[in-house]
Amino acid sequence: MRLCTAKNIKWLCSYAIALVTMVSGMTSCIEPPLVLPSEEVIIDLPIVVSEMEVVWNIETDWKTTWIYGWDETDEATWGKIGYFEPTNYEVRRYYLGGTPGAPHSADNVDGFTVFGKSFRRNYQFGYYDMLIWSNIDSPDGTQVLVVNDGNVNEVTATTTVTRGISRNPDNLEQVTGLFNQPEIFFSSYQRDINISHSFEDYDYYDDVNKCWVKHLKSDLHPLVYIYLVQIVLHNNDGRVVGTSGDAAVSAFATSTSVNTGHTGSTPCIVYYGTRMKKNLTTAEGEKVDVIGGKLTTFGLCDMEPYWVDSRAEYNGGRSDLQNYLYFTLKFSNGTSKTMLLPVTDQCQRQSHGGVITIDVDCRNIDLPNPGDPGSGNLFVPTIEDYIDVNYDIPM
Predict the structure, then answer these.
(1) How many CB atoms lie within 10 A of CB 365?
(2) What is the pLDDT of residues 102-129, one digit of tens each?
């Protein structure tokens, strides 16, 4: 090593650089070695150690208006309600050279899979963008979420078609195809990370590992939102005896940007499963039957993510699309009918997930006869046999 001061004496120290990529900033810190103002530390050959801690802060009130509940059978069938920590991640690292905000190039991007919460990589000096998203733990191989990273500037996620029906594509009230629910996953996209020669750009010197440490704060956000949907059957008296278990909601986005969380503008109908529970009690003490289920979705079309607008309000999506809830009722005379009910207002008020409630007065439903138009299972919807309730959901 050589020492160089203002008197032409300079220290040349080869240190490893530790770059800590975290979701929440660490509070502890180690003071760097004493360096006089006249001295300059030159950091060379950086080695970056990234550590991740997953944190998200989306809040949804599942309990205030949720009558259906969530028992062991629901959990075994559709999983738990909530957002859970992933176990492995994909990383895309874009080297920008000495120009922050420079466009991405296929020649300057590398990708790798991370198991656990830490990984170690070499970095060049200059600027980087870094995209991290969580992989799906799917032991049985039934994952429906498809991540497309073929575009160097933007990674997108889509879901797959579960079944298709040939209907009039110009009629937004009719089913044109059913898509699977995407699995919940998370992403973090950090721009213009500076890997500098100057020790002043680093937070502390790690005397144990002999490296400089730089902190980055980067939240991993959920890109898939949870809706709990319940159809409350009032005054049933045995008229409705069950449900086929088939349900869907229209006008949700088919894709989302992994970089930004902004959803695509192409709509689809997302399929989900339901169960019927009898003799539940509302907060007002009324005995009701309830059909309920959990729906996961990218959200409304052309929608900003919740970390841009977290007010649980409609925020810039496609206003020409209407959300409809499809579900099939089974009746005491052995017939069934698929119902079509509007839920646009509730979806827009809770654009990042929440509780959707539909109240149906069973006294207004005429039992269909076998072979009647609109009878049968999903999806031949009718719209005459429901009451439209404006339900204000507190969030």
Answers:
(1) 21
(2) 999 889 999 999 888 777 777 888 999 9
In a domain, residue 71? The reply is no
E-strand ranges in 98-224 read: 109-115, 118-122, 126-134, 146-148, 156-158, 161-163, 178-179, 186-195, 204-206, 211-217, 221-222
What integer is the mean pLDDT of 228-239?
94
DSSP string, 292-334: EEEEEE--BTT---TTT--SSS--S--TT---EEEEEEEETTS
Structural domain tally of the chain? 2
Predicted TM-score (pTM) of this structure? 0.79
Measured between alpha carbons, how far is 24 from 101 in angstroms, rounded to an integer?
24
Strands 88-97 and 225-234: unpaired
Supply 312's token pair: 């649980």
Residue 108 inside a domain? The answer is yes
Q: What is the mean pLDDT of residues 141-161?
A: 86
Token readout for 95 is 């080297």
* Inside any domain, residue 167: no
Task: Output the six-digit token pair for 2.
Answer: 């050589």
Q: Which of 196, 251, 191, 197 is nearest to 218 (CA)?
A: 191
Whole-Å CA distances, 128 to 71, 118, 201, 219, 280: 47, 18, 15, 17, 55
Tell me which residue of 370, 376, 277, 281 sits closest to 329, measured CA to CA: 376
Q: Mean pLDDT across the stretch 208-228?
A: 81
Q: In the β-sheet with 211-217, what is the strand arrangement from edge to edge? A: 16-22, 211-217, 204-206
In this predicted model, which residue has the larger pLDDT, 176 or 139? 139
Q: Which residues of 213-245 are buried (b: 16+ CB within 10 A; e: fewer)?
A: bbebebbbbbbbbbbbbbbbbbebeebbbbbbb
* Residue 156 domain-assigned (yes or no): no
Name the phi and psi angles at 360, rounded to 5: -125, 125
- Give the Cβ contact number of residue 129 at 10 Å: 21
Q: Rounded to an integer, what distance in angstroms lies between the CA atom of residue 339 and that of residue 374?
A: 9
Same-domain check for residues 300 and 207: no
The CA distances from residue 385 to 127, 366, 368, in Å, are 60, 7, 11
What are the structure tokens assigned to 124, written together?
A: 């060049």
24 and 121 assigned to the same domain: yes
